[in-house]
């Protein structure tokens, strides 16, 4: 496989230091940290990517680590544990500033306990509530901290800095705009056709290219297509890797003119969301609902509105696999950040054969959109050309943190609202989530205490405890050994859907109590989490999951929000108040 990359937008970084050997090592190890950060891509849902390399005083790699999924052990903790005493007096290389949003500062604490003297960081954390916090904490404890683009700005670091930006491009876009990082993917013949005149398109690209597309899907929160693609190709849009993360499937259609029989209505593996114009085909909306398909109506259906909506749902990355009409609309709306074009060495011809991008309203070649940071890669017989339609936002200028803003203007506070939303573990109150990386110890059926990696691990396993069936017992063990809360949830939910007979008969009656006892254990074990919970006194806590209408609050407040209600009940208990004075009844 050959690979050529040509930068169309060379950096204007000003050289502040000489390209000495130590700096060359710094650049090498930062690039390694960025490579590590990307290792979980496709196996878990998109999340902030962290990698850590610890180098001993003799310039030997002492330990490495990367964040596998939200709610798992920090990269820095893994690296320090792997290094042992070899890290003392050494240097830590991080692709991104640690984002300790669980209240325990585990990454910073690990670096301090590991005896590191210096930390080199590829970029500051882009999320405002985390930006600069770890850098200040490390410097406060006497560590020498160097940031690429600030303290280290030689041309030598250009590629390393770019690698750090690229591995967290979705997070950067989320911090700088109100849309997820969006990638447009298409395959076309050498003469620029994505199908024959008849509409037949299987297959333009090679099997190697299609396998790479599966990888791109696995790196995305969702895959989006238009109505024409559903009618013409009847796609499945699965990652097809036999396990791991499966992206949500989104269909964007103005008229809702879709077939009743479609692979996307099969919800056994992964869910589908249809976004459409408000009022479109009410009867068909009811049909989709009967299949379990979620329908979201928009007053104005356009790519910008749709992407802002999915940004609010917490999506980081979306892959567009649509036809030319929707692709042109998405490009014109400014929501496409990167393009992957697979070009097959075939010629199909055809006056009416469709092209990958429809009318953009351009009449002169000078109006053409030029890609940035273009890469050329041979994939089997095909050529893959990729590049950015718009540059990543510049993260070098320091955005004041919340603490710094408060110092300037004490009247400014992001937490004045009476409603506190939490969902992803990297949210400001992410530690409230049942997915947060805080192990708990709970008694089993024999009264012996067992350690569970998270509240979610324990909750999912309890669905199958006591069921006299080897499959149920095996499911408990698989959940217990799951590497992340996300995987524990995927195992439990999938088995519940496929084998409902394996779920204990009293589950609906006890699941609230199971969750409450697990949450109480978690907040009792970790004092800093108790402090975070008590700091929300007087505010309504809402779990902002748009998918789970039982534990979450839903898209428009239609959810039951039982997780938020349990936390408020627990807060009242810790404060010595009666739960009835603050929260609704928890009776289902």
Task: Write up this protein.
The protein is α/β, with parallel strands linked by helices. 32% of the residues lie in helices and 17% in strands. It is built from 18 helices and 19 strands. Strands 1-14-15-13-7-12-8-9-10-11 form a 10-stranded mixed β-sheet. A 5-stranded mixed β-sheet has the order 3-2-4-5-6, with helices on both faces. Strands 16-19 form a two-stranded parallel ribbon. Helix 2 (75-83) packs parallel to helix 3 and helix 16 crosses helix 18 (562-575). It is globular. The model is unreliable at 1-19, 396-417 and 578-588 (pLDDT under 50).
- Unreliable spans are 1-19, 396-417, 578-588
Taking all Cα atoms into account, the compactness measure Rg is: 25 Å
Strand order of the largest sheet: 1-14-15-13-7-12-8-9-10-11
Query: Which of globular, elongated, flat, extended, rod-shaped describes the shape?
Result: globular
Number of strands: 19
Helical element count? Answer: 18
Range of strand content: 15-25%
- Please outline the major beta sheet: 10 strands, mixed
Structural class: alpha/beta
Give the averaged pLDDT, no decimals.
87
Helix content: 25-40%
What oligomeric assembly is this protein in? single chain
Question: Span from first to last CA?
Answer: 58 Å
């Amino acid at each position: 496989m050959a690979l050529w990359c040509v930068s169309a937008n060379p950096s204007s970084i000003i050289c502040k230091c000489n390209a000495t050997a130590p700096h060359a090592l710094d650049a090498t190890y930062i690039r390694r940290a960025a490579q590590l950060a990307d290792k979980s891509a496709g196996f878990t849902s998109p999340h902030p990517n962290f990698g850590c390399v610890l180098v001993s005083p003799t310039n030997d790699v002492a330990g490495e680590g990367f964040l596998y999924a939200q709610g798992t052990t920090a990269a820095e903790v893994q690296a320090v544990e792997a290094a042992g005493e070899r890290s003392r007096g050494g240097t830590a290389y991080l692709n991104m500033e640690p984002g300790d949003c669980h209240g325990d500062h585990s990454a910073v604490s690990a670096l301090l306990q590991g005896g590191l003297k210096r930390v080199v960081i590829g970029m500051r954390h882009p999320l405002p509530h985390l930006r600069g916090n770890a850098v200040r904490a490390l410097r406060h404890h006497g560590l020498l901290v160097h940031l690429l683009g600030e303290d280290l700005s030689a041309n030598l670091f250009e590629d390393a800095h770019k690698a750090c930006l690229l591995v967290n491009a979705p997070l950067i876009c989320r911090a700088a705009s109100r849309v997820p990082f969006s990638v447009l993917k298409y395959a076309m013949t050498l003469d620029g056709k994505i199908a024959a005149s008849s509409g037949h398109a299987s297959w333009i690209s090679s099997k190697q290219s299609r396998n790479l597309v599966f990888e791109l899907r696995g790196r995305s929160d969702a895959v989006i297509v238009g109505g024409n693609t559903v009618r013409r190709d009847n796609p499945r849009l699965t990652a097809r890797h036999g396990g791991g993360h499966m992206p949500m499937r989104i269909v964007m259609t103005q008229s809702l003119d879709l077939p009743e029989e479609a692979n996307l209505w099969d919800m056994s593996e992964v869910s589908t969301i249809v976004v459409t114009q408000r009022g479109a085909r009410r009867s068909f909306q009811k049909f989709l609902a009967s299949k379990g398909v979620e329908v979201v109506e928009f007053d104005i259906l356009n790519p910008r509105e749709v992407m802002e909506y999915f940004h609010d749902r917490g999506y980081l990355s979306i892959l567009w696999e649509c036809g030319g009409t929707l692709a042109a609309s998405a490009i014109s709306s400014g929501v496409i950040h990167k393009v992957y074009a697979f070009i097959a060495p075939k010629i199909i011809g055809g006056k009416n054969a469709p092209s990958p991008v429809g009318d953009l309203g351009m009449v002169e070649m000078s109006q053409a959109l030029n890609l940035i940071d273009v890469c050329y890669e041979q994939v089997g017989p095909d050529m893959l050309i990729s590049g950015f339609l718009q540059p990543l936002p510049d993260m070098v200028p320091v955005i004041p943190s919340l603490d710094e803003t408060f110092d300037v203007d004490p009247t400014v506070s992001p937490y004045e609202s009476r409603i506190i939303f939490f969902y992803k573990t990297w949210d400001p109150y992410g530690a409230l989530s049942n997915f947060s990386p805080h192990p708990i110890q709970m008694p089993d059926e024999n009264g012996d205490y067992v350690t569970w990696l998270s509240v979610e691990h324990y909750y999912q396993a309890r669905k199958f405890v006591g069921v006299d069936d080897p499959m149920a017992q095996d499911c408990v063990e698989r959940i217990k050994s799951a590497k992340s809360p996300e995987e524990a949830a995927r195992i439990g939910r999938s088995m519940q859907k496929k084998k409902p007979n394996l779920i204990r008969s009293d589950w609906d009656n006890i699941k609230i109590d199971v969750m409450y006892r697990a949450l109480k254990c978690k907040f009792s074990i970790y004092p800093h989490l108790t402090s975070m919970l008590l700091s929300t006194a007087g505010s309504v806590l809402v779990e902002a999951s748009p998918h789970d209408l039982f534990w979450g609050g839903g898209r428009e407040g239609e959810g039951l929000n039982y997780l938020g209600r349990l936390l408020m009940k627990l807060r009242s208990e810790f404060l010595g108040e009666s739960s009835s004075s603050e929260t609704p009844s928890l009776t289902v």
